[in-house]
Amino acid sequence: MTVLAKDAIITLAHGSGGQAMQQLIETHFVAAFDNSELALMEDQAQLPLAELTLAGDRLSFATDSFVVDPLEFPGGDIGKLAVCGTVNDVAMAGAIPKYLSCSFIIEEGLALATLERIVQSMAVTARQAGVRIVTGDTKVVHKGACDKLFINTSGIGIVPVDRQLGARFIQSGDKVIVSGTVGDHGAAILQARGELALSGTLESDCQPLNGLVEAMLAAGSVRALRDATRGGVAAVANEMASSAGVGITLAESAIPLHPQVRGVSEILGLDPLLMANEGKLIAVVPAQHSEAVLAAMRAHPSGAEAAIIGEVTNGSAGQVKVSGPFGGERLLPMPVGEQLPRIC
Amino acid sequence: MKFVDEFRDPAAVKAALAQIESALTQVPASRKPLQIMEVCGGHTHAIFKFALGQLLPDDIEFVHGPGCPVCVLPRGRIDDAITLAEEHGVILCSYGDALRVPGDKGSLQDAKSRGADIRVVYSPLDALALAREYPNKQVAFFALGFETTAPATALTLKQAALDGVENFSVLCHHITIGPPLRAILDDPGIRIDGFIGPGHVSMITGEQVYDFIAEDYAKPLVIAGFEPLDLLQALAMVVKQIAAAEARVENQYRRAVTSVGNRIAQQAMGEVFMPAPESDWRGLGAIPESGLMLSEAFRPYDAEARFGIGRTSVAEPEGCGCARVLRGQLKPHQCPLFGTICKPQMPVGALMVSSEGACAAYYQYRAGV
């Protein structure tokens, strides 16, 4: 049933609760996300407990909202981001992500074709991550009340009984591992906004990480995991250092960097350690397990460029330091606000 | 990465450090520690980022100079920019790092949160493009910076004049590098033994603008690039001159800076700007002929004239040590406000705002001080 023409746009009617909204949900969301829970078209999803309790003893539950501009960028779009972001937050507990909810806030006038592409991208990413989008909501707001499209997703995963991950378990002597090159997403978004007149082929690293996490946990013990999104490696390392009451020292020369990210950072005076990632995690691993976990990461497509970038120390609690190539050390502070490009 | 990696080679860095050590042995003890001013904020940032201070002998002390355009921006100018946006309904376009500088009416970022239309641009041409996009709005570019950014403003204004974009204007606070250095050298309370000259500014100006430092004040100045090896090589050149009791302008950054500079940029600046009788500098006060104003031909694009903005003069906040830090009389962490009420997230003085500001660099990279 094709009700909406291909050049159609979203209007306030699509959020009114009436016929137009129902058609939008049925022909686009339910069809794309394709699962029995959503197909019932109830106001909520009912999730069978038996299956969940077999897999673990705790639920991991996370939520995140996505407001990226532009909606589509090299390497991803807001839909892929919305699935990956919440899947990754859930997975950082060592959980197996299972179900997502999805809420759209749409500015009237958005091209239906754009929404369709984004919804398809969510569906593909959800399948890739092995999660089902089982409940949702749609609101349409007046022009100017939001910027094209905002998406919120919440997610539930199951934590197996034997997995206890958290920054509080971090100990002096542990190794810090990053799953690949840092700053790719932040630099790709800067480039995609076209404000910099910098040409390049950078792609966002946006990807679900739950597969990588499974591979890591099968290879050895892991103390803590965190995906390095906004605030980048700097924010994650600082959060970990302060909640565990330890010091962390990173080796600048060990941190994997895409050459173009390095170029963008050098030109604009931005620090790639503060730039956002959407498909990279930081793992803290006991030293004796670090090589095995690293090898498992490198054998996984999402961790091919993983590297040990530092270690946990019993130095000044809560401080993160970066050792430079010449032996000096500098402090890596918690990021303050947005990074502002330098004047010259 | 070409032009980066070879200037971060640990072996070469070690060699440059050895040269500095060796030259220092020729400097009389009475002159030590040497006070070397790195003029440019980019150099200040690099010194901290690469922890060069930790590698250098104690006989070298850096004095962080006035070459961070955001840091020397007087509070009154921020207020003028906010007035344009808030009271005249102007779309105000600014370079990103000016957004957090506090004025008396808060920062541009605060004004933006209050509803003023303030946009970050990467080039004045982006502001001109906005003016074309919104022909019914007034669009002003907050033109900041030394000779590094002034040519871009000049070329944009020429383009605006050529295309007749009448809703575009410029709030001009361009400044020049020579006069503040002279002011610092004339100050009897300041002792500087030598200078590391700015890299980007010198690409435009060439080497001659610094001749007076060697000729009138008998101090050495070496223009340097921004990589660790650039800075250490330049420092070695300065110390060697001091050891040999020489005072010359030298150029370590030959891969980018020529002796005559960029003639096209100089010509565009000459057409569009003229020296302003006097400009305000945070920390240094008013310095004659240290800034640029629009020339007669381009006066119609002057936002101050168009909107009747008078230059606001605002006193520095109580207790703020920015002025003394900029003159090399105080280390950032010796300021009573440092790290207590003045922090990068809530800057009181401008030196805490930009990553090139000496206080922000101290705070970020050496919080243990």
Automatic annotation (TrEMBL), chain A:
InterPro entries linked: HypE (IPR011854), PurM-like_C_dom (IPR010918), PurM-like_C_sf (IPR036676), PurM-like_N (IPR016188), PurM-like_N_sf (IPR036921)
SUPFAM superfamilies: PurM C-terminal domain-like (SSF56042), PurM N-terminal domain-like (SSF55326)
PurM-like N-terminal domain location: 55-159
Segments forming domain PurM-like C-terminal: 171-322
Family annotation (CDD domains): HypE
Xref: Pfam families: AIRS, AIRS_C
Homology family: Belongs to the HypE family.
Name of protein: Hydrogenase expression/formation protein HypE
Gene: hypE
From TrEMBL, chain B:
Coiled coil, from the record: none
Keyword Metal-binding part of the UniProt annotation: yes
Cross-referenced Pfam families: HypD (PF01924)
Keyword Disulfide bond: no
Entry keywords, A to Z: Iron, Metal-binding
Matching InterPro entries: Hyd_form_HypD, HypD_1, HypD_2_sf
PANTHER family: HYDROGENASE MATURATION FACTOR HYPD, HYDROGENASE PROTEIN ASSEMBLY PROTEIN HYPD
Family membership: Belongs to the HypD family.
Name listed for the protein in its UniProt record: Hydrogenase maturation factor
Record organism: Ferrimonas pelagia
Gene name per UniProt: hypD
